[in-house]
Design a protein that fits this description.
The protein is mainly alpha-helical. Helices cover 72% and strands 0% of the residues.
């Protein structure tokens, strides 16, 4: 059978392999980025040392804890943004495949080593290396995929559906964390303990194994390789991004990328800090502690220590936070799939973006404001899960939009550089600073999950409103084909 006129060519076996490897790569990127909100509290409590009274020195809500939490959220993003920007430049200079391979090796090794950290500073440094690898990998992968699939409709589908696996990575890290919490005692001791957050960090190495083995043997971008062989590949520069023909595109996409990330990091990624304060979760944690205390003395069971009771309650909180995170990532996965389907139906890129942006402006701030007001009401956990699913749907889909949009507005010699500027300066540096803003404005002793939720609502509202205003200046790509 011959394909219908105008239909994209069928994928070859090599192209299917490329799509598979790209999907695993995107999944692993988000797997690493969304790991921190799940493990930051137990990790800092374990690495911060013990105070004279016998409890952890870095207690949630204390100034020292807040300072380290802010640094772990923002400093790796800042390092990833700066070095990711350099990675985008090197993608245009050295080739897509070579930079991809290096970035995989960097964040895979750093992810594994972070599980053996003994101080907060070691964890911070290793998270900076992980972020750097992830930021470089995303930019190189998008440019690589876009240029390997020249047919416009096929390219839109490939970019859309492979990026959808990013949300699968977020779902997997939530499930992995729950599994590590449940099976921590059965796993080998690390630094003399069986702490779930260490196993969660180490698990980040597993998805990188097929990438390391296969991706170096896949083809280079044909258009980049041809231009370099012909001597027609221009030298990239950051100054060229602000030339008259690219200035509006660079500024607008950077601001909008920052707004998309600002909603996620300023609000949604703080759910693991908010969920433990919900009445339903606190009741479950109290019930577990009471059962442990009641079991003391029966059949020779020793009386649990105060530390064991605290640890048991903390595991209930971590499990509940991971469960809510799973709902958010499920919504994000559905949102990315919806964008991939709509990308080949809706011609206008600005209109496609607003399909998700306008509902996001209404849903996310309203959800967190409601959560802050009803945190202590029993029976709200199921409503929160559905609300978080909707929030993930309209927010995370915006991330996939940029992977489809940016390759269409920059030529070959500036594609990696332009994508990296918007993604890393806009998203990683400016956008993720929203996490620092939320943590700073909501800091209190003892910590107040309700205050965190209300602050997150305000930060998300500001980021979403700014994005809605700036979108009117987002340039429409002149044609479906990639510019040379």
């Amino acid at each position: 059978m011959t394909p219908a006129a105008g239909s994209p060519p069928r994928l070859t076996l090599t192209q299917w392999l490329i799509c598979f490897i790209a999907s695993v790569g995107f999944a692993f990127d988000i797997y690493e980025l969304l790991m921190l909100p799940l493990i930051v509290k137990p990790a800092l409590a374990a690495l911060g040392g013990v105070n004279p009274a016998g409890g952890p020195l870095l207690v949630p809500g204390s100034p020292e804890f807040t300072q380290w939490a802010r640094m772990l959220f923002f400093v790796p993003a800042l390092c990833g943004g700066i070095f990711g920007l350099l990675g985008g430049y090197l993608t245009d200079r050295l080739g897509r495949r070579r930079v991809l391979t290096f970035s995989i090796l960097l964040y895979a090794g750093s992810a594994f080593a972070s599980g053996f950290a003994t101080t907060p500073m070691q964890l911070l440094i290793l998270r900076c290396l992980v972020f750097t690898g992830v930021c470089v990998e995303f930019v190189a992968a998008v440019a690589w995929l876009a240029e390997l699939f020249p047919d416009p409709k096929q390219r839109e589908k490939v970019l859309g559906y492979t990026q959808a696996f990013s949300s699968l990575g977020g779902l997997l890290v939530a499930l992995a964390n729950r599994g590590c919490v449940a099976w921590a005692d059965a796993l080998p001791a690390i630094q003399g303990t069986h702490e779930a957050w260490r196993y969660t960090l180490i698990s980040g190495l597993l998805p990188a194994i097929p990438l390391i083995l296969i991706r170096p043997f896949l083809p280079e971008s044909p258009i980049w390789q041809r231009k370099r062989a012909e001597g027609t590949l221009k030298r990239p520069s950051f100054a060229a991004l602000f030339a008259p023909e690219f200035r509006r595109t660079t500024i607008t996409t950077t601001i909008l990328f920052a707004c998309s990330y600002g909603i996620a990091f300023g609000a949604i990624q703080h759910l693991p800090q908010i969920v433990p304060g919900m009445a339903d979760v606190k009741a479950d944690a109290d019930a577990v502690r009471q059962r442990l205390a009641a079991a003391a003395g029966t059949q020779g069971t020793p009386e649990p220590s105060a530390r064991e009771l605290v640890a048991a309650g903390r595991r209930v909180e971590e499990d509940a936070a991971a469960a809510v995170q799973s709902w958010q990532e499920t919504g994000g996965l559905l949102g990315r799939l919806a964008l991939a389907a709509l990308a080949v139906v809706i011609v206008g890129r600005r209109m496609l973006f607003r399909v998700f942006q306008i509902p996001c402006l209404l849903i996310v701030p309203a959800l967190f404001a409601w959560l802050g007001s009803n945190l202590h009401q029993p029976g709200t956990i199921d409503l929160v899960k559905w609300g978080v699913l909707l929030a993930g749907f309209v927010t995370v889909a915006q991330f996939s939009f940029w992977g489809n949009y940016l390759p269409r507005v920059y030529p070959v010699h500036l594609r990696g550089t332009g994508e990296s500027f918007a993604a890393n300066i806009g998203g990683r540096v400016l956008g993720t600073s929203a996490a620092w803003i939320t943590l700073t404005l909501s800091a209190s002793t003892p910590p107040s999950p309700a205050r965190i939720a209300m602050t997150a609502a305000a930060v998300a509202a500001g980021a979403a409103l700014l994005g809605a205003v700036v979108t009117q200046w987002l340039p429409e790509p002149p044609r479906a084909e990639l510019p040379d």
